[in-house]
Amino acid sequence: MARKQPGKGPRRNHAKALGLGLGALFVTVGIALLAGAVVPAALDHARASRVEAGGVEAEGIVLTKHREAAGRITVANASAPLFEYFVRYRFPAGAGVQAEGTARVSREAWGALEEREPIAVRYVRDDPGTSRVEGQLSPAGMSAFILGAVGALFVVVGGFFIYGLARG
After folding, report:
1. With a threshold of 0.85, does the pTM exceed it?
2. pLDDT average per 10 residues of sequence, the chain (168 residues)
């Protein structure tokens, strides 16, 4: 009569299949999170490149400026709020057409701008909706970095699950 080897059999195979499925789930979620971080950043880069390559300069006017809370940073028991700074502007886009845009800008650029004052705008002539202003930041900002880091972590953890269980 054949003896059963310890660690083998239906229970071991079920646990291994469950672990491989969990690893695959982690990798899939990680890839989705990475895509959620990379795709918007790539699209923003493509828009910025279009504006730089074939952009037309115009003098616009600052319509409004505002800031939004973006969390808090704490270092050594000292805490400070974080803000994101936005400006909404209007500019002439040729042939009597007025276009508007909203941009997330650096704190320094935001501080230097005043409502109802001029702002330099660069836009794509055949697509005035694609415009940029001095000091403009990526719309995704830090959230894209965090989303990408969490996605990478999920891929690594899931990969270790799959690799470890596939070997053993």
Report:
1. no
2. 57 77 92 88 81 88 93 85 93 90 94 96 90 85 80 92 79
Domain assignment present for 85: yes
Identity of the amino acid at 115 = E
Predicted local distance difference test score (pLDDT) of residue 157: 92
Total length of the chain: 168
Ramachandran angles phi, psi of 80, nearest 5°: -140, 145
In a domain, 115, yes or no: yes
- Dig out the tokens for 132 from the structure: 């940029």
Could you tell me the CATH number of the domain that includes residue 79? 2.40.50
Task: Copy the structure tokens of residue 57.
Answer: 């300069």
Strands (E), the chain: 55-75, 78-92, 98-105, 118-124, 127-133
Do residues 154 and 33 touch, judged by C-beta distance below 8 A?
A: yes
- At 14, list the tokens: 């079920």
